[in-house]
Design goal:
0% strand; mainly alpha; Four Helix Bundle (Hemerythrin (Met), subunit A); 6 helices
Length: 144
């Protein structure tokens, strides 16, 4: 394992974001074209979501989710790389984060079972909190 290994789940998250964005764009374009919705009617996210079914608005909600906690994930990956701290524990946690964020996105963008979506979100979050707390503890130990 090399320090660069952390960039596989890092880029995986970026690829997931691109896939969800593409899916969202296609869903919206197809729906708006099929229902002859004037883009001006969708002037805000609230107005757009009120006009479309959940299956069309769900990918947009998921895309917003992909710029919340993953932002911290990206920062931590870069921190771990720059400080040469990437090890098996961090790498496994990063892969767990990625895998369960993928599951979360698939669920939210398709059949949207809230219990499964929440469970996948929770597991991914715990993996992220592991990375964060362990990083903070490492910094604190260096200060002592």
């Amino acid at each position: 394992m090399t320090q660069d290994s952390i960039f596989i789940p890092f880029l995986g998250m970026m690829l997931l974001t691109f896939i969800v964005w593409t899916y969202m764009f296609i869903q919206r374009l197809v729906h708006m074209t099929a229902h002859q919705i004037d883009p001006q009617q969708a002037i805000s996210p609230d107005k757009f979501n009120a006009m479309v079914p959940d299956k069309v608005s769900a990918p947009g909600h998921n895309l917003r989710n992909l710029v919340e906690l993953p932002l911290l994930f990206y920062a931590l990956c870069i921190y771990l790389y720059l400080t040469s701290q990437v090890d098996t524990g961090y790498l496994y946690a990063a892969y767990i984060f990625l895998a369960f964020r993928v599951l979360h996105s698939v669920v939210q963008c398709t059949f949207n079972n809230v219990n499964l979506r929440f469970a996948s979100y929770l597991v991914a979050s715990f993996a992220l909190w592991y990375i964060l707390i362990r990083s903070v503890l490492n910094v604190l130990s260096l200060l002592n």
